[in-house]
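Hi there,

I know you've been waiting on this one. I reran it after we fixed the sequence typo, so this is the corrected version. Both the input and the resulting structure follow.
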Amino acid sequence: MLLINDVTAVTMDAQRRILSNASIAIDGNQIVAVDTSDVLKTRFASAEQFQADGMVVIPGLIDTHAHADQSLLRGLGDLMHWIPFLDDVVEPYLVKRDPADAVLANTLAMMEMLRCGTTCFVSPNVDPRDDYQSLSEAIGNLGIRAVLGRFIIPASGKDNLEIAKTTVNAAVNVMNKWHGSQNNLLTMWFGLDVPRRPGDTDHPYFYKTVSEQAEAMDVGIVYHFCSEIEDANYIVDNYGVRPAEWSKDNYALGSNVLLINGCQVTPLEIEILAETGTNLVHSPVANMKMATGILPLVDVLNAGVNVSLGTDGALNNNSYDMFSEMKSACLLQNAIRQSPTAMTAQTALEMATVRGAKAIGREDDLGSIEPNKMADLVLLDLKQVNTYPIHDPVSNIVFSANARNVHTVFVAGRKVLDDGCITGMDEAMVLQSAQERGEKICAELKLSGSNTWPVS
């Protein structure tokens, strides 16, 4: 039993209570009580005590769009729109990538996430060629939650039910091996490949088979959706319908589906997403940086669609910082709508916590600080120059805080960040390996950053 004492708890419970002078009792991997410190210190007098000394505690942040395998390419996707970004950087990297580099990149990204208060992430396109054993071990060692979308593409050639089942069953065999591993930290989803550009083909039997198998396994489906003006126009030009209509016709919407970006959605499509209970993840920093477009977030939320937040990745963000995403989501909507109240700090924090939990089907045990939920907690030291004084803790969290304010992180009751230090891995060793391998990858792929200034 562990008792975290003397905190301000931003609970994100149904009443959105903020409890001053609070304590949180943890038994194993679960929260068992949240109340005033006086009450819980008496009730759990024999528990191990953790004195938080006035820190603010929030639920672990949930990054629902994070290409964690791209961190070794940080800064190499600048000044690029999506097609040269994919063709000139991502695809060459994947073709030549050593599986060990994928594990290293994921490890570096996960360490950054923990330092930024992220306790769970969704990686939507995990390469089938990756070393799942080593990746699983890295997840377990660091103690972070991971939803890995095992990338699944239809077999080339004619689409039929037999081929579709063979393709999907091959993916399922891998997913079943790792789903629920590392004490349930690792969850396997389908990372779906859908038509987005000239040369892509569609496979209705394949999509239906993926949908049926996902339902049978009780797992999710994640894919990039209506992100760019080009991919939206491609669907319209080739199929005569909007992307959401195409997705609905191809069994690729529903409450277990997480769509990425949706920058080009129309009112009709927003209505379809709401009617089908489909989830959407917004990645404002990467969208702005790549000139992808602007999600009409306020309209989507007002329609009743569940929207979460994601960073996208180090290649086009260039970080995995959810504090930046929360702030940017607010500023972007307020700017385009010319209203300082269009998007509030409270809504942004909901998107990073309770809405993120709902997007991955975990609203029953993640996303808030209350009894019977998993003990995924982030302790923020706001007694710093960038976050003091505190008049409104939620405002300070969303608009002022950053990774430097993240003091301690618990995932499933385990302390995975202690006073700013990663507990499950040698950080210095990972950083050294990342620099060495990053430089070699740049040389091998003949990539360089966008800097034009002289460096001596």
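Quick highlight: The CA atoms of residues 176 and 217 lie 9 Å apart.

Best,
R. S.
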